[in-house]
Fold this sequence. Notes:
- The protein is an alpha/beta fold.
- It has helices at 8-17, 57-62, 82-93, 101-106, 111-122, 126-143, 148-154, 160-171, 216-227, 237-250, 267-276, 287-293, 300-308, 335-345; strands spanning 27-30, 35-37, 51-54, 66-67, 183-189, 196-201, 204-210, 230-233, 285-286, 321-322.
- The strands form three sheets. Strands 3-1-2-4 form a four-stranded mixed β-sheet. A four-stranded mixed β-sheet has the order 7-6-5-8.
- The two termini are 33 Å apart.
Amino acid sequence: MSATLPPVVEMERARSRRDVSYDGIFFLGVRTTGVFCRPSCTSRRALARNIEYFPSAHDALIAGYRACKRCRPLELKDGPPLWVRNLIDRVQQSPQQRVTDRTLRSMSLSPVMVRRWFTRHYGMTFHAFARSSRIGVAFDRIKRGDKLDRVVLDHGYESHSGFREAFGRILEQSPGSARDGARVAVTWIDSPVGPLLAGATDDGICFLEFSDRQRLEEQVASLRKCVGGAVVPAPHPQLEALREQLREYFAGARREFDVPLVYPGTDFQIRVWNQLLRIPYGETRSYEDVALALGDRHAVRAVGTANGSNRIAIVIPCHRVVNKSGKLGGYGGGLWRKQILLDLERGQRQLG
């Protein structure tokens, strides 16, 4: 069992209360029915001895459980839980105000639970999220030409040195360089196959990954290195365009994405990713097909590695690459997601 799970006593208490604030923190499988649910599921409660806990829907599926038809644990169509939305709204509306653990407790929220949720879905703790959001807003104001003194005061910093230290720690650059600096704005996008973490620069979308992936933090760190800027939770027009196009895609109303893309990599990786973009909607190619299209039939293994290194899931359709035998092969987001995406594109499944 994953160490990221809350203590069993805490999960049992949340399950008995059908506590919606724990949705996304853990999932529970019922051995007697073979079904897994959210903690808030209103189905008849099973005996504790028949319950198995999982840190993600993916883990429950791998263990052989099927999704509950009542609480639909694979479908987060309502977005984050209300308590998460309230916290995010509070940070974005008043970035200069600090939200401490004491503040969280006054809102009847467990700081430990909040930290776990944000770490799982955003790859950072809530306090890191709040600091990054505050600095992100300051970054935009400096880029627009606002005077540094006013930005420092407006965002709750008592001194220039404190602001510069926080700015450098999060954005990995000095405030004075912000007017020409780069950064990746990230946001959370819900989808019928689970939450997605999306990132964009002013040049285009550079990151889209399922946020329950075990390698998410590694991917974000790699993204920061490739793009050469910091990763900061913030709104961005490119992200809003992506959100709408993904909604259309899952509803079956869009076959091609036209958001601009940024995908730095080695020459070979970029050639592979460009080839993936040429695979038509509703069709698949084998790893060997991609290697042959690149002019090197012996590069099948290298194609598989580059395919797995794709940072922009769905839009750069690595899910359309399968084994020569027709079997699904691998997929970083989980084979169950790969099957759903292929079924959607073949008209065999409706998600919208």
